[in-house]
Specification:
The complex is a heterotrimer. By secondary structure, chain A is α/β, with parallel strands linked by helices. Chain A has nine helices and ten strands. The mean pLDDT of chain A is 87. Chain B is globular, with a radius of gyration of 20 Å. Classes of the chains: A alpha/beta, B mainly alpha, C mainly alpha. Chains in contact: A-B, B-C.
């Protein structure tokens, strides 16, 4: 579904991504692990088109998307949530979701009709709000929402465009255990034909949800495999020295 | 995000009624003033659509209005095209030019956008000013008004023409409101708030911005027709940067991002200009200082300030009721 | 058209480029440091020309005007800075633009009130009258002087920015103001200093231009727009960008007017459009 071939990115003398290759199959849950500065967010930025690679190729459904802009790739079904909340602060939760849903439905150019009244858009918004547990504050302004709620909305926005490939950048960063559980449930509820890539720091969560894991370090892929294989690999363990105990 | 409130509707309705009354009671002079207000109000509305809701502060809308007026003049005077088709073509030319400017500047942000619109507006002025065929500095006269005798209306009558201009404000206001409340307008507001995210949703923000400029230029084009038909004479001065500048000041004076504010601003501006001009020749220093004063003291403008006062006032009464 | 003709056009273009450079460098550095677009910059240039005329009338000397006009404009700029601009540094960009735009109107009438509506001329100083023989042509000495001043300013600015400590501090502050402040650079004093230098350059441009263009109320905007085009083409905040931009615009306007007179009027705007589409950040932006 989403294939990356020898992707590299350098800023002058600084190489932030080196010859990254991976292949995420349709419906797969791929977790990207790696210490801070490993280049995980950079990889996502390259995938969505916010960063132009120095070399390499990115393919969706077998077709190269290298020449496509951010919005064109999004229309091919790519969606992403950000590590730092990137919301519409002065609007309500509902309005935030409406914008995403309308864009996903390609209903942004009507000049006579209000997309906020469209039944299809309404349905998506209600569904997503339910999934990310924001239904009870849906008409509150984002400004007044807690950090945790904002994190939920952050993921909600990425979902509301009804993507085929969803990339989530540390979706649970900074939230408490209750919310991590909620996120876990959200993932279970997502359709199996949705391909998902997640950058995670919470290793327990990562091992729990992943079909496969890719580990990055210093901009390179240092390991790829199933959760079990990842746990057993010595290179990976060296990187995360002391960060986790092997759950026997 | 655009919300049409009761207050805005009521204030707008009262303003229009006020203008109508003024025309009926005030005779020729009042008619002239009201048409001036109408032209300015429509340009201000068009600027508010892109600046207040799209974050695109433009200094070329006066030039666009002038371009529409000149197209109308050229078609009717030089080519004998009847008034109505000429108007439609002129408005189309304005919309096209605006869309092109919007597309060219679509990749740029606030400051660049303002500078670019200033430059392109002056470019239009220079081209027309230098053109001997268009009359150059002397301009072009003999522009016709609509022939509405089929409806029993005499467009040469001051009162009739003033009412026609007022109708123009109402139509443009309604059109702007409709578009701002549509999917297009919502998306535009979204782009203004967080362009990167909108792109990530799949929206072609450059094209969207270009279309917004196109629609807003269409409205300015309407103002151009009214202006051309009013004096039945056009000159390059219509495209000079001060026209765009004054229109922008009108929007700030009335209240950016309220749609009703620009209308109030236009009324206040024309009446103020009239008062000040009878006292002194130095009108520019007054509006310059006025603009600075408004921006430095919060920038809400007359109507914007009124709305703010009302919302804080109702909050206060709500609190006391609770107590 | 012989070689002599082209040398003349070349010199004319160079002279116009220098004028544009003096104005746009102030604009671009102020933006680079303060993130502030001072639309009233053209008005300061206009003030420079008018102050020069008055000074020359009072003292009978062009050179007195040459020194005092930039100083006068710097004084006006400093007053403006403390009254308004310092307060606006943290305001949102639109407010900054609106206020400086309001200032254009204010200066327009201030000049009209003080000096009237008629264009005022300034005499070329006796030492620079007449023509010089250069590169096979006779060229007005005064215009050569303009080219000389412009080149000197370019060289000085380049030296200061590239070779001195202040220059390094300025470049650091343009690159990353917060970091520069964190390492102890007094950023706000630096900004004030740079702002004053920008104003002085605008005033200098005014006194230099006055003998050629005369002091008029329209000169502020008529130079502001090409200067804005220069700054957008060259890239906001960079010295190299201002140099390249002013040369490009200067040559297009001057030589274009000779070769394609009908297109020349819009040629720099077409270039502006091209840059906005292809390289929105300008040819040599200060930040990568």
């Amino acid at each position: 579904m989403l294939e990356v071939r020898n992707l590299s990115k350098s800023f002058g003398g600084l190489t932030v991504a080196k010859d990254i290759s991976l292949n995420i199959k349709l419906g797969e849950r791929r977790v990207i692990l790696g210490p801070n500065g490993a280049g995980k967010t950079t990889l996502f930025n390259l995938l969505v088109g916010e960063l132009t690679p120095t070399s390499g190729d990115i393919l969706i459904d077998g077709k190269s998307v290298m020449r496509l802009s951010v919005n064109e790739r999004a229309r091919h079904g790519l969606s992403r949530s950000y590590q730092k909340n990137n919301l519409f602060e002065n609007l309500t939760v509902r309005e935030n979701l409406m914008l995403a849903a309308a864009a996903g439905q390609d209903k942004t150019t009507w000049m006579m009709k209000d997309c906020f009244n469209d039944p299809a858009v309404h349905e998506i918004v209600a569904d997503v709000a339910e999934r990310v547990a924001l239904a009870d504050i849906i008409d509150k302004p984002v400004r007044s929402a807690t950090y945790g709620n904002r994190r939920q909305l952050e993921v909600g926005l990425a979902l509301a465009t009804k993507p085929r490939i969803l990339l989530m950048d540390e979706p649970t960063s900074g939230v408490g255990p209750a919310m991590i559980d909620g996120f876990h449930q959200l993932l279970q509820s997502l359709p199996r034909d949705l391909t998902i890539g997640i950058i995670e720091h919470d290793l327990d969560l990562a091992f729990d949800i992943a079909d496969r894991i890719t580990v990055l370090n210093f901009g390179e892929v240092v390991f790829e495999g199933t959760p079990a294989e990842t746990r057993g690999d010595s290179t990976v363990r060296d990187i995360y020295l002391g960060d986790w105990q092997i759950n026997a | 995000m655009f919300h049409q409130t009761h207050t805005r509707c009521i204030v707008f309705a009262i303003s229009m009624l006020g203008l109508a009354l003024y025309v009926i009671l005030g005779g020729f002079f009042a008619g002239e003033i009201v048409v001036k207000i109408a032209v300015l109000a429509i340009i201000a509305i068009s600027i508010d659509v892109v600046a207040g809701f799209g974050g695109m502060v433009s200094l070329c809308h006066g030039a666009i209005m002038g371009l529409s007026a000149y197209t109308y003049g050229v078609l009717t005077v030089k080519f004998g095209v009847p008034a109505l088709p000429a108007s439609i073509a002129a408005i189309g030319v304005a919309a096209t030019f605006g869309t092109m400017i919007g597309w060219v500047t679509g990749r740029t942000s606030g400051i660049f956008f303002i500078m670019a619109t200033l430059a392109f507006g002056q470019m239009a002025y220079t081209l027309i000013f230098k053109s001997r065929w268009l009359g150059g500095d002397d301009g072009m006269g003999g522009l016709p008004r609509f022939d509405a005798s089929d409806f029993g209306l005499d467009m040469n009558n001051t009162v009739t023409f003033a009412f026609y201009a007022i109708a123009g404000i109402v139509v443009c206001y309604a059109a702007a409101g409709c578009v701002l409340r549509s999917a297009f307008g919502r998306t535009l507001a979204g782009i203004h708030t967080n362009e990167a995210r909108m792109k990530a949703f799949g929206v072609n923000t450059i094209l969207h911005r270009a279309r917004a400029m196109g629609f807003s230029s269409l409205l300015s084009g309407v103002a151009g027709i009214i202006a051309a038909q009013h004096t039945q004479y056009i000159s390059p001065e219509l495209l000079f940067w001060t026209v765009s500048g004054e229109a922008l000041i009108v929007v700030i004076l009335g209240g950016l991002g309220t749609l009703t504010g620009p209308v109030i601003g236009a009324m206040a501006f024309v009446l103020l200009k009239h008062q000040i001009s009878s006292l002194t020749d130095y009108w520019h220093i007054v509006i310059g200082l006025l603009l600075i004063l408004i921006v430095v003291s919060g920038g809400r403008g007359l109507f914007g300030q009124y709305e703010h006062w009302r919302s804080t006032h109702t909050q206060k009464t709500a609190k006391t009721n609770y107590a | 058209m012989d070689a002599g003709f082209w040398v003349l056009q070349f010199l004319n273009a160079l002279q116009f480029s220098m004028l544009l450079f003096l104005l746009s460098i102030g604009l671009t550095v102020i933006f680079g440091l303060l993130h502030f677009v001072n639309l009233a910059h053209g008005a300061l240039y206009m003030m420079g020309a008018y102050i020069a005329v008055s000074t020359a009338n009072q003292t009978g000397s062009y050179w007195a005007a040459f020194v005092l006009a930039p100083l006068g404009v710097t004084l006006v700029g400093a007053i403006l800075y403390f009254m308004l601009i310092d307060r606006l540094r943290t305001a949102n960009p639109m407010n900054q633009v609106l206020v400086t735009f309001g200032l254009i109107f204010v200066f327009l009438d201030l000049v009209r009130i003080t000096w009237g509506d008629i264009a005022l001329g300034l005499e070329v100083p006796p030492s620079l009258e007449g023509s010089s023989y250069l590169l096979g042509v006779h060229y007005p000495t005064y215009r050569l002087f303009i080219i000389f001043v412009g080149t000197m300013v370019m060289a000085c600015l380049w030296l200061v920015l590239a070779r001195t400590q202040i220059g390094a501090m300025i470049r650091a502050s343009v690159e990353n103001g917060a970091m520069a402040s964190a390492v102890g650079i007094n950023v706000s004093r630096l900004f004030f200093g740079a702002f004053c230098v920008g104003c002085a350059l605008a005033g200098l441009a005014g006194v230099i231009a006055a003998p050629i263009f005369s002091a008029t109320t329209g000169m502020g905007i008529s130079i502001l727009i090409p200067a804005l085009v220069v700054v957008v083409i060259g890239g906001l905040g960079s010295l190299e960008g201002a140099i390249v931009g002013s040369l490009i615009v200067g040559f297009i306007e001057t030589i274009g007017a000779v070769i394609f007179p009908s297109v020349a009027a819009v040629s720099s705007y077409l270039l502006l459009a091209a840059i906005l589409i292809l390289r929105p950040k300008g040819l040599i932006p200060a930040r990568g």
